[in-house]
Structures are given as C-alpha cells and as structure tokens.
Amino acid sequence: MNPIILYSALILAGLGAILAMVLYLVANKFKVEEDPRIDEVESVLPGANCGGCGYPGCRGFADAFVKSDNPSAMFCPVGGNKAMEAAAAIMGLSIAAKEPQVAVVRCAGSPAKRPRTAVYDSAPSCKLAATLFAGDTGCPFGCLGLGDCVRACKFDAIGIAPTTLLPVVDEERCTACGACSTACPKQVIEIRKKGAKGRRVFVSCINRDKGGVARKACGAACIGCGKCAKVCPFGAITVEQNLAYISFEQCKACRKCVSECPTGAIHEVNFPARKPTEAPAEAVSTTA
Amino acid sequence: MSLRTFKKGGVHPPEQKLSADRPIEQLALPPKVIIPLSQHIGAPATIMVAKGDHVRVGQLIAQSGGFVSANIHASASGTVESVEPVADGTGYRRPAITIAVAGDEWMEGIDRSPTLAHDPGLAPNDILARIAEAGIVGLGGATFPTHVKLTIPTGKQANILIINAVECEPYLTSDPRVMLERGPEIMEGIALLMRAIGVSRAVVGIENNKPDAIAHLEQLAHERSGVEVQPLRVKYPQGGEKMLIKAIMGREVPSGGLPIDVGAVVVNVGTALAVYEAVLKRKPMVERVVTVTGKSLQRPSNFMVRIGTPVSALIEAAGGLPNDTGKIISGGPMMGKALLSTDVAVTKGTSGIVVLPQPEALKQKPQTCIRCARCVSACPLGLEPYLFARLSQHGRFADMEVERVMDCMECGSCFYTCPARVSLLDYIKLGKNEVGALIRARNAKK
Q1: For residue B433, which residues of chain A lie inside 8 Å, CB to CB?
Q2: What fold does the segment set B124-280 form as a domain?
Q3: Residue B305 forms beta bridges with which residues?
Q4: Which of A176, A272, B132, B390 is the most buried (most CB within 10 A)?
C-alpha cells in the first residue's frame, strides 16, 4: 500500500479519536440542564410563533410558562382554552377557562359615509401615512384603509372590503392574537370578548371630536350625544371625550342602545333578525 | 471672488423663482386669526388668556412652556373666540387660540415707525432676554427658538456667525426680498447677534442666483467691520445649516452634533431682521414674509402676513386658487408639507405657500428599487436612503438608529433623484419618528 495513503488515514483516524474525546468532555462539562416540561408544553402549543402572547414565539412562551410563578395569568390566544388546559395538565395545574375573544373593527367610515377630502399618494402603509397626516378624510381618528392589519395577520383572518374600504374580520379564523390591533396606528381595532353565540354590541367609532365636527366628517360617527348611556338599563355605557364606550362586562346585549343611536354608530352582530313585536326584555333573558 | 459650495451630494431642481421681482406687500387683516400654541420646536406654550378676553397686537397670550420653547403673542387685536384645538396642516387637532379681529390696536412700547434704530450698546444678556421675550424662532422653516440657539453652552465657544440667506428651496423668494428691502435693518440685526454670542466675524451666505441681493448687502457690509458676504454656487440643500457650514467654513458638523461644535452659529436672514425688530423696536414676532407662488397662480407675490392668517386669504390675494390645483404646499416644494385644507393658519415657520398644478403635483407610481445608488450620491450627509427605506418597510427601527437616521435633515434630495420614485423620504420620516420614540423610551428608563 502507498505509505502516503496509510499515513493520511492513520492521522485522520487519530485526530478524529482525540477530537471526539474533547467533544465528549466539553459536552459533559458544560451540559445545560433544561426542564423537560418546556418541550412538552411547546408541543401542545399551536406552533404559529405569532407573538400574540407577548413572548418571542411558542418556545419563548413555553419557557416562561414553566418558569412562571403565576402561570394562570398567561394565555395563548391562538391555542385558546384547549392548549392552555393541556399545558396546565403538564404542569399539574388547572386553569380557569377564558372567554373567547375576537378582533373588532371600531370604524364604519365607508366612502359613502365619510367623503374623501384629500388624495394620499405615498407608500401604502397605515403607519407611514399616520406619521405624515391625519388621514384622507375629515376624520383624524378613523381607519386609513391601507391594510397594515391585513399584513400583520398570520391567520388570513382580516381583509379590506372593496366597497367599504374598511377591514373585515373573519370570526372563524380570528384567534384574537392582537397582531392587527398592535399594527394599527390609529388603534381602530379592539380585542373584545366574543360573547355568547358570538352575539355582541359595540360602538363602531373612535372619533373623540365634538358632535358637530365628527358628524360633518363622517355620517357614521359617534357624536357623543349620550342617548345610549341614558337608555341603557345596566349602566354599561360611558361617554368620555364625546365618545361612547360599551363595557362588555356590564352589557347584557339587550340592544336598546342600537335603535336609540341617531347615527347608527352602535353595531350588533350575530343576532337573529329582529321580530317586529320582540320585546327587549326577552332578548335579555335569552342572551344573558 | 470664488464661488463656494459643499462637496458631497446635493441636487439642482429648477429654480422657479416666479415672485423674485415682486415687492413685499402688506396683507390686509383677516376677520379671524388662529394662533397655534406649538409654532416652534420644543414644548408647546402655555395659554395665558381665556375665551372672551380682549387682546391687543403684541400682547403675550401664551408663555414659553420650557427651556426649548417660545413665547406667543397676539398678532391681531380683538376678542379671544376660543382656546380649543384646531386642525393644523396635517389634519391632526392641536391646541390653538382663535381671535376674532376688531381694529388694529397695538400694545404700548412697540415702535412701528420705519426709522432705523441704532444699538445703544446693550449687554449680551439683555439682547438675549429681549429676543426670548419677543418669541423669536428661526424663520428658515425649522422654527428652533432663537434665544436657545444663541445661548452658547458652557465649555463651547462661538467663533463665527453665519447668516443663512441661501434660500435654496425652489419657488421661495421671501429671503431675497427681505434683503433688498430691509438691508440696513438686517445689518443692525447682525451686529446685535454678533454681540449676543461674542464673535467678531459674520459671514452672509447667499446663492449666486440672487446677484441683486448680493450686491446690495455687499455695499452695506463695507460700512461695517467683521461682516462679509460670501456668494455661493447654486445647489440644493445649501440652506441646511450643516451644508452651509461646510460651504463657508469647510468644516463638518459631527454626527449628532450642533453647529456650535465647530464654533459656528447659523441664523436665517429673516430671523436677523426679526431680532433687530425685537431688540431695538420691541416688536414681538407677530408677522412674517410669506411667498405665495405657483405656475398657474395669477399673481405670485410676497406678502407681509400676520401670524394666524388663514392660507385661503393669501391665495385669494395672489389671484385665487387655480382650477388645475393638485397640491398646496406649506414651505418649499422640496421640504414643505402638503396642506389638507386652506383654512390652516400661517405660523412662524411658514416661509411660503406653493400651489402646484394637477399633473406634476401627485407622486408617480413607485417602481421597485434597482439599487442604482443615486440616492446615496445625492445625500449631502453621506447617508444611505435606500437602506433606510428597506429597514423602515420591515420595521427594523433599531437598525435605522445604528445607520444614523437621526442625522437626516429631510431635504428630500434622495426622493428627488430616485428614478424608481420610491417614497424614500416618507419612509425615513416614519423611521425618524419611531427612532425618536425609542430614544425617548430609553432616556425615560435611565
């Protein structure tokens, strides 16, 4: 045999053996002890790595969950109660179920209701537009319609409707991770409880201008007249800075405010069509 | 006499100085003035009047709200109609004072006669106090409070006063008009400024496309010691103070630094006039010269306008809004901001109103960046605009700070040269906004 080949093979084999020893010793010396439950918790999480929980991906959440003193305060909006139950079982805990939530668009300023007063000609980004000006309509609060929320959504659950130019949330797909809400520079999108059978009532406007100014800018604006707050039997509605807000906790979804609102700014969703004779009291009993 | 300029970057847009030959006209008082509380960089001023109060011209109606802030005075006499927020040029509502104008009654002690006053030998501190009292801010457009600029920080020393009479923005002509019509007053103002910061040398930088202003000021400068006029080659953005320092002194202001770091204080020529009026005539900043111009405008003009006059009144006086209007810009076409409405008021920083006709007003559809690096060669500060746009698109604002986005002065040369029409400057503005928030958050933590 050619001695060059022999020597080469021997030297390489020797090197391999020595380095393997080194690797083995180093691996033993610097071994990282990791809680095996982190892997288990991660495996029951959805793996979307959306960041909706506030941690860097599902691994980050699992790590924090296992090490947390108060894991019941943490929640994975995507996996929902199912994932949280499984994760809690791994830890030998039980966690109270959370009510499902959904992203709610609080602007109804379609072109028909809210005439355009200017033309925006820069890059299509809400965040960018909001640093340059208040918006291409008379309302400085409402949706800009350039789709930052759509780009932020990892679940394809939100899109801009071609006629209203406003975002529409697909309730089935929405996981309430809050990415759209964070991406929106105008804070138009609120993460709100879904309600029994998905039935809920909310004010679809965030305009804080005085009534006259808001009304002039947008036909669908809340003008802060306070009629809803007066008619609400449960004290669920507060009017602050010319804007009404319905507290989900106190609202019994009686829908009295919906018909009272002069501008139609209060929206009801997923309710069956109203019967002409339906008494509001019945609505309370069925949905409360 | 050689022509100086800054070396790196810059562009040369068509000059379009349509109103260069129109003398400054006094604009009639509007029925109502709207005076925003934040007409300067820094903290907004604090309201000192209430609804229904009677005010006179020159009366202090809002007091400086911090060290970097400026006093605000009533620019018209009448009754305070409201102290509610009013939409500014961007459409956002900002605190403002609205005055229903009645008559033209000035405060006592303000000398409105045209006779030239001479410096009685005031101490530097007195000069600064009078400037601060009068609410003088930089009239070039950045509206930095002048008394703050003139207060030299301990440990630093000023060697030279640079008077910025470049007016490098296309269309605008208010500075050359002021120089031609108020030359002697400007010279008095320069002398006051030199005393205030303790320098013996002042250089007036003027671009070579204003030969009449150069000749006029050179003649006046001969009579004074220490004042010289430096003609400059026409190049945008020479009116940026860092560029002007580079052109005149050949020195570069360090990144994140101020002109005082190289021993210079830069003051706009219009501000020098305002300083003269404030110190020797005790006249607060209640009016300024505004160029109203545009190709299809009937009568492009230069107006002396009271602060708070609605833009619509200026456009009316210049012949009315043309039918083909596509955009109304407050400031010059390069750095100015498009207005959402003509109800917006003239503020201390409004150097001009440019009315652009329809076809050229709108941005063309952006194409994909082809990495030609024209923006890099055009940037006078040696930054990389294409990189900022990419980082901004991806929300990587911390990286933008590392790339020194805060050095950008938003001159718009990058966007002007971009063959793909990418909205570089808008992305940079977003980045600066976000980086500013990052820096504030960091400072708050400390």
Answers
A1: 131
A2: Rossmann fold (3.40.50)
A3: B288
A4: A176
Distance from C-alpha of B162 to C-alpha of B190, rounded to nearest angstrom: 9
Q: Which of B90, B337, B426 sits opposite A123 (nearest CB)?
A: B426
Residue type, A209: D
Identify all chain B residues contacting A128, using CB atoms and an 8 Å cutoff: 392, 423, 426-427, 429-430
How far is B287 from B310, CA to CA, in rounded Å? 13
The answer to whether the CB atoms of A209 and B93 lie below 8 A apart is yes
The answer to whether B264 and B250 have CB atoms below 8 angstroms apart is no
Which architecture characterizes domain A101-287 according to CATH? 2-Layer Sandwich (3.30)
Q: Is the ipTM, as predicted for this complex, more than 0.90?
A: no
Cβ distance A192 to A104 under 8 Å?
Answer: yes
**DSSP characters over B306-358:** ETT-BHHHHHHHTT---TTEEEEEES-TTT-EE-S-TTPBP-TT--EEEEEEH
Asked if B366's CB is within 8 angstroms of A133's CB, the reply is no
Mean pLDDT, chain B cut into blocks of 10 residues (446 residues total): 83 92 94 94 92 95 92 96 92 94 93 90 94 94 92 93 94 94 95 95 94 94 92 94 94 93 96 96 95 94 96 95 93 92 94 91 89 95 95 94 95 95 94 95 90
User: Which chain B positions have a beta carbon within 8 Å of A117's beta carbon?
Assistant: 340-341
In this prediction the pTM is 0.86
Residue A116's closest chain B neighbor by CA? B340
**pLDDT tens, position by position, A38-52:** 999 999 999 888 888
Sequence spans of domains, chain B: 124-280, 374-445
Q: Do B340 and A119 touch (CB under 8 A)?
A: no
Residue A282: per-residue pLDDT: 41
Nearest residue of chain A to residue B340 (CA atoms): A118
Instruction: Kindly determine whether residue B433 and residue A121, on different chains, have CB atoms separated by under 8 Å.
Output: no
CATH number given to A36-91? 1.10.15
How distant, in Å, are the alpha carbons of A119, A260, B68, B193, B257 from that of B158? Answer: 46, 68, 20, 12, 14
Least Cα separation, residue B366 to chain A (angstroms): 8
- Domain map (residue ranges) of chain A: 36-91, 101-287
Note whether A128 contacts B90, CB cutoff 8 Å.
Answer: no
Q: What are the φ and ψ backbone dihedral angles of A228, each rounded to 5 degrees?
A: -65, -40
| Mutation for testing the B interface, residue in A117, A125, A128 having most B CBs under 10 Å | A128
In chain B, which residues have their Cβ closer than 8 Å to the Cβ of A119?
A: 362
Distances (CA, A) of B135 to A282, B48, B52, B279, B342: 65, 15, 24, 11, 25
* Pair type for strands A167-169 and A189-193: unpaired
Q: For the purposes of burial, counting CB atoms within 10 Å of the CB of B155, is it exposed (0-12), middle (13-18) or buried (19 or more)? A: exposed
> Exposed/middle/buried for A36, CB within 10 Å: 0-12, 13-18, 19+?
exposed
